[in-house]
Request: fold
Amino acid sequence: MIVITLTKVPASLRGDLTKWCQEIQTGVYVGNVSARVRERLWERIKRNIGNGEATLAYNINNELGYDFKTTRKDRQVIDFDGIPLMKKLNSNPAPVKHGFSNAAKYHRARMMMQKRPPAKTVSTKEMDFVVLDVETSGLDYQHDKLISVGAVKQDANGEIQTFYEIVKATVELSAEIQKLTGLTNEILIREGKPISEVMTELRKFIGNKKIVGYNLNFDLDFVKKEMNYVKLDLSINQSLDILPLIKKRDRFLDNYHLNTVLAKYGIKNDQPHNSLADAMATWQLLTKLIKKGWV
Reply:
């Protein structure tokens, strides 16, 4: 068992700790982890603590049955005949060196962002891309099939244009995929178009625009495979995956599923795993990233 106490640390570190520990009181965390995880967690705390303080107490095989560590400048952990003691230092602590941790750097960057002029208006030229999302019968593009394709772009007049097609069934969908996407085998048979027709129309919709998506390689693997079958090509189109941008900027999210990221940026998606709804939500996300200057 471990007990961690934190004071004046970045909120991101507090959130990060909840992956391993339970916060039983403000700044007090308890957990049950291995010695290896405990040491890595302590290194993580010291790396991201900023100008705050932390103390760690944990079980160990000594006379007391526990030991502790601290980052406090006015305390020192000493060993007295095998017994750990916390010694109070009489000397004044050294001046705090500001801005030395990653957490401090992230905080400074956020403050700089807040001091910037109001967010710029996104011009038509900056929006010269198409956001793509697909739903599939499985995760393996070599064996599974596209079942729907959604895309969003902006025309020269600034109007939003959308593309959505269901692909005629060539495989049986599992119950899990039907529940996830809302598409059934009957819908694919009744409303689906042949894959060659869908790919031809999608190619025209994309044109020369940059292709953007969230975890884009997954979508492109399926689309490129089907386009190759009908002698179409996307090699002239540049591409941009939003996922690495989010991972670089938001290092303390619980996970990087699209719905988690959308919630972080205040974007609502009422139909997750619908290719057009996901494409539209990703469009809104990308628009926000452009306004922040991250793209």
